[in-house]
Write the structure tokens for this entry.
Amino acid sequence: MIHAVRMKQNASHDVEPIRYDWERAEAEALYDLPFADLMFRAQGIHRSHFDPNHVETASLLSIKTGGCPEDCGYCSQSAHYETGLKATKLMAQADVVATARRARDAGASRFCMAAAWRNPKDRDLDDVCDMVSAVKELGMETCATLGMLTPAQAARLREAGLDFYNHNVDTSPEFYDRIITTRTLQDRIATLAHVRDAGIKVCCGGIIGMGEGVEDRLGMLVLLANLPSHPESVPINLWNEVKGVPVNDTAERPDPIAIARLVAVARIMMPRSVVRLSAGRQYMTDELQALCFLAGANSIFIGDVLETGISRTSSSNKNMKSRSILI
Ligand code: SF4
């Protein structure tokens, strides 16, 4: 059921509405605010819901790489494109746990396990459930991204201790068919519902810089903000350059201020969601990352391998040793 407007008490505003009925024109009006006004508004909302000096850290491991039957036009792991990526089998549990332990010791509080599948087979899910339980025992939050799920598979992952499931909408409804043809946006929304119904928190965002317009980026935010519940985490990925995929021919990197504006609009429209700077941060200067934190981003990946390619942490983030980063 679509919730209309929920009212939330908070410290700095008497009543802050949490909305699920955003119009595209409203998102555009926010995006077009004078920059200082937009940042001020986003920062005020950020402060009313989060500790403004805390940034969550997460680490991601590809537990099964390449050979994916989906045709996501941005992805090095799709079997539809010649990207030179070597497909691998599902990693052994001991190796996954050892990597998670290293990530925890390096400061990550959440560990995400990513597999390049259209959807997991039940026998693969047995292995992933064991991995989830073992990582949970390290005291970390767990996240997985495995493709589409049935309700029963989502329930099994929850039982194993999965905290978050990542499944992105990727882009706006209008641009979606230009990027993926092997599964529909509705397929994705159905998986998000199964995840939510199983009691798993939702991590859902998208990718910018694939050749979409600002209207598509805002359309993606409107789509996310009008889901039955806002995703608990909203990753914003900047497309990682990958040779051999169709997006390589259309990609256009957004300018830095456009990225900061988008983060600010995400913060305003989804006030209680954690907004994560995900893949593509190697294209962002430390100054731009700081600007995005001021605009309301409050999570970053500190791992190396992300789903759309290989992402290296920036120089400043390599040195993170604690679970919270003071900025
Ligand atoms: S993004 Fe995921 S589903 Fe799409 S091709 Fe890559 S691994 Fe497969």
